[in-house]
Specification:
alpha/beta; 2 domains; 8 helices; 228 residues; 5-stranded parallel beta sheet
């Protein structure tokens, strides 16, 4: 599998490349956002690891450009620890976020987790509930395709997981904690806004009105439910 690593700190990029290659991945390194974008357009990777603070085109802008055309997983690297930087990255479509300095083995583990999630959608499944269809929304777990009123919705693997979970439990309120622990497979923290950001992103792709969305409803103090 092909992984793109973009970081203007060459020592970090080369270290990440070494660890990923040791796991058998094909890795291509670059040291600025513009070069990364050119590589992506000519050879789409299976996953990208992007530094936030790069000269010229930074990681946020690059992530936004990626999400306008592609759905492969994106992991952001940053030296900043402010929650707003993390939220910005997630709002632009990043799937995970690692703060520098980091343990390379942790990054490798996160890469593997994101690739597993992505590969899941290429597997054939025999479950009769692979397709859910109601009120113009069609979501297919087997092909990882989703349409709304016959218009394709381009969802990241995590966005797809969240939407599938809500659709599968249509009419039932699902807490942010339950969504996070099921989709990310990690312990939920009360201060974690990750689910909220991804819900907002899904609503934007569905072109849902902010004040009165048709499908994904917020049940304040409880969680989210999908209706249609």
């Amino acid at each position: 599998m092909k992984i793109l690593v973009a970081d203007d700190e060459r020592e970090i990029a080369d270290l990440v490349e070494l660890y990923l290659k040791n796991e058998g991945y094909e890795v291509q390194c670059c040291y600025n956002g513009q070069t990364a974008w050119e590589i992506i357009q000519t050879s789409v990777p299976d996953l990208a690891v992007l530094d936030v603070m790069m000269p010229g085109m930074d990681g946020f802008v690059l992530c936004q450009k990626i999400r306008s055309r592609y759905t492969f997983p994106v992991i952001m690297l940053t030296a900043k620890v402010e929650d707003m930087d993390k939220i910005n990255g997630l709002a632009l479509g990043a799937d995970d976020y690692v703060t520098k300095p980091f343990n390379p083995l942790e990054l490798v583990a996160r890469v593997k987790a994101q690739l597993r999630r992505s590969l899941h959608y290429n597997e054939n499944q025999s479950d009769n509930r692979d397709v859910l269809d109601f009120s113009g929304l069609v979501i297919n777990r087997r092909t990882h395709e989703c349409t709304l009123n016959e218009k394709p919705l381009i969802l990241t693997p995590i966005e797809f997981d969240i939407l599938w979970m809500l659709c599968e439990n249509r009419g039932k309120v699902i807490s942010s904690e339950e969504i996070f622990e099921k989709v990310w497979g990690e312990k939920y923290l009360n201060s974690n806004n990750t689910v909220m950001v991804h819900i907002r992103h899904i609503r934007e792709k569905m072109e849902e009105p902010v004040r009165n969305p048709k499908f994904i409803k917020t049940v304040w103090g409880v969680g989210y439910k999908i209706e249609g």
